[in-house]
């Protein structure tokens, strides 16, 4: 499932399924789709919040270092 229309449904999904994602950027992709939907709905504040989630999940830590693990969007 990856067609979320609000934060609550996405967060509830992640509460149950987060450990089934191998890579954090896969979770970031879910937020990116939500961000795009919110942007289309002219919900700019929520769209920005979703972008912050995308940015967070596109990094990982290895041996104390933050590593960018996926490409940035230039939408926001």
Order of helices and strands: HHHEE
User: What would you call the shape?
Assistant: globular
Radius of gyration: 13 Å
Structure annotation, total helices: 3
As a percent range, the share of helical residues equals: 55-70%
Q: Helix/strand-derived class?
A: mainly alpha
pLDDT < 50 runs, ≥5 residues: none
Beta percentage is: 5-15%
Q: Round the mean pLDDT to the nearest integer and report it.
A: 86
Which features characterize this protein?
76 residues, two-stranded antiparallel ribbon, 3 helices
What does this structure look like?
- With 76 residues, the protein is mostly helical.
- The protein has one domain (7-68).
- Helices cover 55% and strands 11% of the residues.
- The chain has three helices and two strands; from the N terminus they run αααββ.
- The protein has helices at 7-17, 24-40, 44-57, and strands at residues 59-62, 65-68.
- It has a two-stranded antiparallel ribbon with strand order 1-2.
- α2 (24-40) packs antiparallel against α3 (44-57).
- The longest helix is centred in the middle third of the chain and has 17 residues, at 24-40.
- It is globular.
- The two termini are 25 Å apart.
- The mean pLDDT is 86.
Can I get a quick summary?
55% of the residues lie in helices and 11% in strands.
Topology, element by element:
Blueprint: H1 7-17, H2 24-40, H3 44-57, E1 59-62, E2 65-68
Helix pairs in contact: 2-3
